[in-house]
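Why run this: before we spend reagent on co-expression, it is cheaper to look at a predicted model of the complex and decide which construct boundaries make sense. The entries below are exactly what would go into the expression plan.
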Amino acid sequence: MTRFITSSFSHLILLIGILIMVVPVWMIFASSTHTSSMINMNGLQMFLGDSFYENYLRVLLYQGGFFKEITALKMFFNSFIMATGVAILSVVTSLMAAYALVYYRIKYATLLFWIIFITILVPLELRIFPTYSVMAELNLVNSYFGLIVPISASAIATLFFRQFYKTVPDELLESAKLDGANTWRFFVDFLIPLSKTMIVAMLIFMFVFGYNQYLWPLLVTTSEQYWTVVMGLKMMSGSIVHRFAFVMMSMVPPILIIIVLQKYFIKGVFQDK
Amino acid sequence: MSFLDLKNVTKIYPNGTKAVHETSLSVDEGEFMVFVGPSGCGKSTLLRMVAGLEDITEGDINLDGKLINEVDPSERDVAMVFQNYALYPHMNVYNNLAYGLKNRGIDKETIEQKVNDAAKLLQISDYLQRKPSMLSGGQRQRVAMGRAIVRNPKIFLFDEPLSNLDAKLRIQMRLEIKKLQQKVGVTSIFVTHDQVEAMTLADRLAVINNGIIEQLGTPIEIYDNPKSLFVAGFIGSPQMNFLDGNIKNKTLSAEGFEIKDIDSDFEGEVKLGIRPEHLSQSENSLINLKVDLVEQLGSDNLVYGQLKDKKDFCYRCPGNLTIEKGADLSLNIENNKYYIFDKSTGKRVN
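The model came back. Tokens follow.
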């Protein structure tokens, strides 16, 4: 009996927590399916209206911005390019950095690693002016390359891969060597397949990280052509229902990617084999 | 020049530890050589230098007439079976076997042929599609051997491959390794700390201690004729009994008894070694043993007890003799099979 009470009680707390998180999102979604005059008169709505297609289609195709050069669809495209670029580039660089740190006979490899690790304490916002000036010198302002590259070296991912490589038994490398594998083959045939789940987990992490960038895209893009979704949230003008619809849509890509890949994500982060 | 030649091979680790002292050794083609010694004696290091996994500090290693000191392990054409097998966890058994061949650019049909042949030889054909994690210890061991065989290397290196198996499987795999080696006829070096494994597998045996080969010879030579205290104590199970003694005028006096007319001119402090199996009960006794414990193995009994001076002593007798705990036995050394070692240097003196 007491067990029933305690478990009901903890479920109650969880339920309240879920409601606190879900209800506002639901209200935004429900409201975004009404007409703006309805919202203006009656406030936020708890139930679905019938303007879903009308509102969402308009938001996707509406020419926004000061110069009317960009649609929400284009922003999604930009965000997708940026997030994917950041995810792939940072995973590739950190895989290789970790490989070099663990398997090559580098003097002071541990020290080097900690120097890399310390960069976590130096977020992009802190180095944003020098980074901008580098990009400007290289003529990379207003380009996808400029959006992606400066945030594509991840100390966290390097840490993850390094710690994993350190658990790979030496005999595996030795055995592979005797089987005629060179350093590149060992990397491709052994370490990459063995860290598959971890790679997926890091891809998700970095995708969401890239997708959520706000300040950097804001600085490095002056042309509306390169606006991303998160920038658009701020820049978006128009009626309240359209903004709501845009907010709802902006949540979809990260949620989608986590739902599809969550199996790998949990395995990779918690090393659950 | 023999097939594998080690000349004054030395290993000094960067921290200054000398793991292998100037060691020279030659292994003939098709020979099964076993390195045996306690853990940390340098036997694995020696093996890994042959494989190319450790740098050679000094000396030369020649394989099949070619100096291989600077040759990369992947080009040495040696195969190694590791203690924990080091199977590739993400590849199935087939790919585990085929990987080395693929890296050598061999065409697909030949690889398939070779893998299937090796699998048949080792009776692992049914598991080719399985991952190593789905195999038992014995099966993994076979896959590890298959990976070595399939490449048809110049030399097999075994680094304590049986120590992760349970006792029964170990004996079975030991037999199979020996049979397989005779069938395939590949030169092999086998590292172990288990003297029974060493005795049963070896054509020739190198007993290694503190980075030095103490004695090299066939198993029976080493058993019958140990050249040092260490070898005498290490080879043979149960261990040889050692008693303190003193030689004067060709007479050895130990606690409680004397042996006259010994075959040695040595004088001074010695250790007398007697194997438990070289004793028998007799009237004109030399040694009096008070029995503490009897281990009945069926075919034999191992009798443990103490001599007059409370020294532990072991006697091995046929299993049909019944010996009670607490009994007093009078024992004699059969056929004068005893060994005398200089107490200070450990060298054999008779």
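Chain B has two domains: 4-233, 238-342. The longest strand of chain B covers residues 18-27. Bring this page to Monday's planning discussion.
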